[in-house]
TrEMBL record:
The keyword Nucleus applies. InterPro entries: Nucleoporin_int_Nup93/Nic96. One of its GO terms (cellular component) is nuclear pore. The keyword Iron does not apply. It is found in: Nucleus envelope; Nucleus, Nuclear pore complex. The lineage of its organism: Eukaryota, Viridiplantae, Streptophyta, Embryophyta, Tracheophyta. One of its GO terms (molecular function) is structural constituent of nuclear pore. It comes from Protea cynaroides. It comes from the Eukaryota. GO terms for biological process: poly(A)+ mRNA export from nucleus; protein import into nucleus. Its main location: nucleus. This is Nuclear pore protein.
Length: 452
């Protein structure tokens, strides 16, 4: 049999010897002939598969040095994979009666990615999709996915890593939805490691592209956690920059931590999660940014209040408290640059200006029009004092954008108050002229004609 592959085995020939000779020869032609002549040789898929695996030779490219003397070509792993993939999954599972047979066949034939993908799609009570997650973690951690794509599969190496990472990530997100952020974090970390090439990615031994993919996914998933309720506490701890939290496990460099957190704070603002943005900026020590966020929100709340929205009043008190808290933290912080100090002072000035504007709104709303007008004339950042000389400089353009937003409603309130009070000494008439001149000097702002 070793010499003549075309010869049919005589009746009664020892099957065990036939199998042994075929395995030893490793000849694709002899193996195919044996199976064709003796189709009932194996009674189970498992026996058949182990025979095939035993006959496989590690022959990359089928080099001439490994071809047998009589011209027989060795039986390779790719030959086995091509043969197995000719049949639909239902052939192996007996139309679902034995659901694990097909992934078992794929795993034994080193088609690892297709195996876990098949298991992950199971939605039955057996929980095979959960098994797929943990098998994926092991395979990815050992970096064997690059060898797992079978013939005819169009999935590249990076795509295989991405597919497995997606399986792990989706499973972790179920814990996120349940509020179990700590467990979600562990699965998210494994997902990032998977796309980065496995265990080697943690010690920086993966290739450049894998490291980049890992870092991108890791930051994305950490941000997702950070934005959830309890996420800041989990990643940064109860206080400080994050010395007590989980973030330091994944980002050990302080500058990298700061860059990540500032980017997360920016994303919080874009998502309308201003309170989280402020908290993150405070933790990082970016007090001027935190104050600017407070001022932006306070400006919006004042505008909402002037338009009759009920949530404006409750919101403003919390924002002012938050701003004062930031200033208190800043006061006792030792690691502040000169530039940061200047920015903090600028934002502190804006905060105090917004407080005055809010106070005027409250006085007018409570019916204290006279007191409201007195406060308007005291404003140091607007040229509305009747006793002061006219200012032609572009005062409005020098104001913070957050103050500029509040000016139109502030002027409306002043004019409304002027309509309800008696002018006994001409000062209110002078104030009205001041407002008219200020509006005339800022016609480019397209304010309503009511101001003129």
């Amino acid at each position: 049999m070793l010499r003549m592959g075309d010869r049919v085995a005589p009746p009664g020939y020892d099957k065990k010897k036939l199998l042994l000779y075929a395995i030893i020869s490793g000849s694709r032609r002899l193996i195919d002939r044996l199976l064709r002549d003796m189709p009932m040789l194996f009674h189970t898929i498992e026996d058949f598969l182990w025979f095939k695996l035993s006959a496989v030779r590690d022959c990359p490219g089928v080099a001439s040095s490994v071809v047998l003397n009589d011209g027989f070509v060795p039986y390779t792993l790719e030959d086995l994979q091509i043969y197995l993939n000719k049949f639909e999954p239902s052939h192996y599972t007996k139309n679902g009666k034995d659901p694990l047979v097909y992934p078992y066949v794929l795993l034994l034939s080193i088609q690892l990615s297709p195996a876990v993908l098949y298991l992950s799609k199971d939605t039955g009570a057996e929980g095979f999709n959960i098994d797929a997650v943990h098998i994926s973690i092991v395979l990815a951690d050992h970096g064997v996915l690059s060898e797992s794509v079978g013939p005819g599969q169009k999935v590249g190496v990076m795509d295989a890593f991405a597919e497995v990472a997606s399986i792990i990530r989706q499973y972790g997100s179920t814990y996120l939805r349940l509020g179990d952020l700590s467990t979600a974090l562990e699965y998210y970390a494994q997902a990032a490691a998977a796309v980065g090439g496995g265990q080697l990615s943690w010690i920086g031994l993966g290739n450049t592209d894998q490291q980049r993919q890992r870092n991108l996914m890791l930051k994305q998933l950490l941000t997702e956690l950070l934005l959830r309720d309890g996420g800041i506490y989990l990643l940064l701890g109860s206080r400080g920059f994050g010395e007590e939290g989980e973030l330091r496990r994944f980002l050990t460099d302080r500058k990298a931590q700061q860059h990540f957190l500032l980017e997360a704070a920016r994303q919080c603002q874009e998502a309308g999660l201003h309170d989280k943005s402020i908290e993150i900026e405070k933790r990082v020590g970016a007090y001027s940014l935190a104050l600017e966020t407070v001022n932006k929100c306070l400006s919006e709340a004042i505008c909402a209040l002037s338009r009759g929205r009920l949530d404006g009043g409750s919101r403003t008190a919390g924002l002012i408290h938050s701003g004062n808290e930031i200033l208190e933290m800043y006061k006792y912080s030792s690691e502040i640059s000169l530039q940061e100090r200047e920015h903090v002072l600028e934002q502190q000035t804006v905060l105090r200006q917004l407080e005055v504007i809010l106070f005027i709104h409250k006085l007018a709303r409570e019916g204290n029009q006279l007191d409201a007008l007195k406060e308007v004339t005291k404003l140091s950042f607007l040229p509305l004092d009747p006793r002061a000389p006219d200012v032609t400089a572009d005062v409005f353009q020098n104001l913070s954008p957050h103050i500029q937003t509040c000016v139109p409603d502030l002027l409306k309130i002043a004019l409304s108050c002027l309509d309800t009070v008696t002018d006994t000494d001409g000062s209110f008439r002078a104030l009205r002229i001041k407002i008219a001149n200020f509006v005339a000097n800022n016609l480019a702002q397209n304010w309503p004609l009511r101001f003129v």
